[in-house]
Amino acid sequence: MKEKLVLVGNGMAGVRTLEELLKIAPDMYDITVFGSEPYGNYNRILLSPVLAGEKTIDDIMLNTLEWYEENNITLHTNKTVVDIDRKARKVIADDGSEESYDRLLLATGSNPFIIPVPGHELPGVIGFRDIHDVDVMLDTAKAHKHAVVIGGGLLGLEAANGLKIQGMDVTVVHIMDTLMERQMDSVSGDMLKAALEEKGLKFRMGAQTEAITGDERVTGVRFKDGSEIPADIVVMAAGIRPNIELAEKVGIHCERGIVVNDTLQTFDPKIYAVGECVQHRGETYGLVAPLFEQAKVCANHLAKHGIGKYEGSVTSTKLKVTGIDLFSAGDFIGDETTEEVVMKDAAKGIYKKIVLKENKIVGAVMYGDTVDGAWYFQLLRDETDVSDFRDSLMFGQAHLGDSGHGGENAASAMSDDMEVCGCNGVCKGDIVKAITDKGLFTLDEVKLHTKAAASCGSCTGLVEQILASTVGDYSDTPKKHPMCGCTEHTHDEVRAAIKEQKLTSISAVREALEWSNPDGCASCRPALNFYVLAAWPNESQDDPQSRFINERAHANIQKDGTYSVVPRMWGGVTTPDELRAIADAAEKYDAKMVKVTGGQRIDLFGIKKEDLPAIWGDLNSAGMVSGHAYGKSLRTVKTCVGSEWCRFGTQDSTGLGIQLEEMTWGSQTPHKFKIAVSGCPRNCAEATIKDFGVVCVDSGYELHVGGNGGIHVRATDLLARVATEEEAKEYCGAFMQLYREEAHYLERTAPWIERVGLSHVKENVVDDEANRKVLNARFLESQEVFK
User: Fold this and answer.
1) Closest residue by Cα to residue 571 from 604, 595, 601
2) Within this chain, do residues 384 and 425 fall inside the same structural domain, yes or no?
3) What is the pTM assigned to this prediction?
4) Beta strand 90-93 pairing with 103-106
5) Is the distance from CB of 314 to CB of 330 less than 8 angstroms?
6) Domain holding 756: CATH number?
7) Residue range of the domain that includes 463
8) pLDDT per position as a tens digit, 392-443
9) String of b and e for 349-364 (b: at least 16 CB within 10 Å)?
10) How far is CA 419 from CA 381, 446, 705, in A?
11) What whole-number distance in Å separates Cα of residue 252 and Cα of residue 262?
């Protein structure tokens, strides 16, 4: 028999807890919900756009009444729980109905703080917390002219903007000298005030309300200086107070909020609490992101998994007023122990202030240009040392020196582990993975599957950028992209079939998957040949005729029909004997040019096709093998001289480069693969634009992945930090094998990582040690076959 779970409060935090619970323990409880309103769960954060006429009530519904039915949840609408019998474990509603529980979850939210001045109970004085309040404001705007909003914080300004859009004459009354003083400093506050005044809002700053005037309904607001302004409606937006009335009544320990521990349990372990009603470690929260973090932890413990703790939240804020961009996070005021980096362009209405302590961001406030808000917030949360890029910090992530991000939009420049949606804790990698794995092509689909942009909506533009950069013009993109015209199957479907059906030749693949062209085409034949070889290295049948001409000739064909030959130089190191052999071959086979390449090798140009077997024979006899400059395989391992010779070197980069090249040469990969090892962070070997790059540091090795030069330069993402050469080699082998097994043919590591998400790569290579060792073992096994 199932246990009974009762939720008191049908708001965002409580229902999110149920959603998280249903993911991990869908059959554990019989669930009953009590809600005081006649609706399902809706997004209260988006009441401002509803007031402004930008959204409808249907647009902000998160869980319709049908959702409760589909999940076998009993929902009591228009019922308020007024008592709890903790001994008998049952709740009693205002209509006398009762419901027993084994576990009780309180999510009673908060109440608007109504300033207790004379007249505060007059009709026309309201808060701004629910759909009813919005309806009252919209009805008032149709018949009346003057609106007063008391409170110049986030909620008050959003209410004022909406009422102005509805045609009312709006005055914002604020007791402080700076708007949104909890989220802004005086400079950004003044810029915001000026922008809102341009929209037609009026302000009374530093004003104290003495009384609300009127007889049968509100007619005005009087201040302590004796002045008065007309008002047909007064919106109290002077803060919120946790709704602890029910909990206090039944003896649950409360202070400012219902006191909970790190598992969101109250002093009664059978009773949990989440949301704006709770107080955790002395803090209460009114923003949605920490409430959803609480929900996830609470659900975990309700499911009796017993892992995870809620340890508090770092919050950020964005203003939802069309045409005004504002972001703040952390301690943006600072003190004598902090430093400030400030940029102000008054003419363009842009202001940024980053507060640093010991070269770590502790706070930020941005006005007019908030595109890098998510990046700054990530640096703040991760306590990242910004010393290396402090000089360019103010210009944003897309302008980090020559890292290759210049000209990209914010979404492209973001790393996969960077948080996009603070409300729901969704990172870029989660969104990219959902888009690629589930074939998502619309914003609504992304919202449904990831929850990104589904709460406050302030990250909607960034999510749309990620969507566009991942799939292009997603409005017209088909959900499946066949390999070629010979089949309806995608690359991933073909690779899966090869593995599942143990197809060891390209002819077997074409037959099993019913290719429309039984001979295949120039697009699918090389891809199929690689997929078969990668899946079954010991059993596969190579088809040389399905390889490109360069691979068949073991050289690169040039514009005049001759070829270039590149022998391998391990880690860019050579010997006098090898140089003599190269010189002899160049003379013997009449090379037209001998050139040192960017990959630290020597290239012999102008070799005739008929001389290729002979020149390779001579070079092989001298102990040299092919550099695979023509292949979809490892090309070069570029190194600097490292600690053996360089006074800045921290590790033996040349030695590690040689080891990596000896381990990986000859490997067959979806596209060319380049490695580099730099001996120190000065990065002379350009490791941060390679498919796999190692940057040596005093403590070991930083491993980077997914970079490339070329037309569209892409800087690498940091994969991991390791202490030993053996670890670096293991990570390299595992990463290459994951790339070999998952990437599409002719897909470089950069677009592959952008497609699957860096988080996916880290899960397989970094987080799962056992899987990493298995991947590396498979790579080494394949090397035994192909070398």
Assistant:
1) 601
2) yes
3) 0.56
4) unpaired
5) yes
6) 3.30.413.10
7) 316-476
8) 888 887 655 444 344 455 666 677 877 788 777 788 888 888 888 887 777 7
9) bbbbbbbbeeeebbbb
10) 10, 15, 20
11) 17
